[in-house]
TrEMBL record, chains A, B:
Record-linked Gene3D superfamilies: HAD superfamily/HAD-like
Classification via InterPro entries: Acid_phosphat_B-like, Acid_phosphatase_pln, APS1/VSP, HAD-like_sf, HAD_sf
Keyword Ribonucleoprotein: no
Tagged with keyword Transcription: no
Top-level taxon in the UniProt lineage: Eukaryota
Keywords from the UniProt entry: Glycoprotein, Signal
GO MF annotation terms: acid phosphatase activity
Lineage per the UniProt record: Eukaryota, Viridiplantae, Streptophyta, Embryophyta, Tracheophyta
Species the sequence originates in: Canna indica (Indian-shot)
Stated name of the protein: Acid phosphatase 1-like
Entry's family note: Belongs to the APS1/VSP family.
């Protein structure tokens, strides 16, 4: 048991450091470990640690009037949590099922991740231009996503940017890179970029600092 | 105590995910935690997990005769361990002292990190062009580094590339990026890139895959 915990902790750290890539499900011997991690307090502690790093970085970043200082935040498991969905699916120990996942998302009831909402509010208050950028399909999930975000307190961002028809079928790295290049072309300086997947944080124009929110439940290439 | 372990684990994961940057010493409340981590087995387990990822990635990477398929490995705390030195210095809980560190390095007695030596031997056997790239000063530390590596079994690499006069005073990212750009200009394809610092793995021409070896004892910008 001790060695299983040790193995699963090593696996989780390998995920967070982008050493483990392309995995489809949580290793079966780590499902219980991931459950304990997500519900037992360590996940919250880890999110708090990332948000603390954001907050201390923010202290050194001044926004001047007229400057286009931007932050980018991903949506799923960055702003909004899918933990209630994954709880019913062995915390990522089952293959991804797009039909049931879409049904879940369309209900529009994802709870905010509290620490991320806190720093989001600070960014808005500090007058950064905040862009929420998500691979969710705009046509199908646009309305429910906007409503879910607003209901959970994510109010005041510059724009919610979703996957349009033009980007259907593209991987997350090219899609999000294209969005960031566009923002930079419009004169924005990306001061920070926050996501739970490395595919949010790699590619072009990744920003002055990236922040990886922990997520041991699934991997988006 | 439980909450201190939880805090220090969160800090360590933040380091591995490149969320915590620019830190100068291990937080004082985490020195004991880092000691337990480095000596108690979890560090070895984490290194093994990274090396396992390298091994399974390697299975899908073919080397063809005449192709210039390269791997890059950092030296300090990637191939060779400085743990005996940091043991005497509170596992990173003291500010870096370049004089005593140079004395340690000049003794040439850094032990190999066993799992990394194992995968290094596999790379050599598979006929990859392996480059060891280190920020150690060539003039001062060239001889002792080459001898230390050879004595520990790191034999058969294409070249040990150290910091020459031209790169003195440059940060690790520009220095290592310049070396990698040069290798790519010479026709090498960097199939993998391994280091214990994110400054080994970011910048230009980082390679097809990067592998972050854990290191909670110090941060190289």
């Amino acid at each position: 048991m001790a060695s299983e915990v040790s193995y699963c902790l090593s696996w989780r750290v390998a995920v967070e450091a982008n050493n483990a890539r392309g995995w489809r499900i949580v290793p079966s011997q780590c499902v219980r470990y991931v459950e304990n991690y997500m519900l037992g307090g360590q996940y919250s502690s880890d999110v708090d640690a990332v948000v603390d790093q954001m907050a201390s970085y923010l202290e050194g970043v001044a926004v001047e009037d007229g400057e286009k200082d931007a932050w980018i935040l991903d949506v799923d498991d960055t702003c909004l949590s899918n933990l209630p969905y994954y709880r019913e699916r062995h915390f990522g120990g089952e293959p991804f099922d797009s039909a049931s996942y879409k049904n879940w998302v369309m209900r529009g009831v994802c709870p905010a991740i509290p620490a991320v909402l806190g720093i989001y509010e600070k960014l808005i208050e500090r007058r950064f231009h905040v862009f929420l950028v998500t691979g969710r399909d705009e046509e199908l999930l646009g309305a429910c996503t906007a409503e879910n975000l607003a209901a959970q307190g994510f109010v005041g961002h510059q724009k919610l940017i979703m996957r349009s028809r033009a980007h259907r079928g593209h991987g997350a790295v090219p899609f999000k890179s294209a969005i960031r290049r566009q923002l930079v072309a419009e004169g924005y300086r990306i001061r920070g970029n926050v996501g739970d997947q490395w595919s949010d944080l790699l590619g072009d124009c990744v920003g002055d600092r990236t922040f990886k929110i922990p997520n041991p439940m699934y991997f988006v290439p």
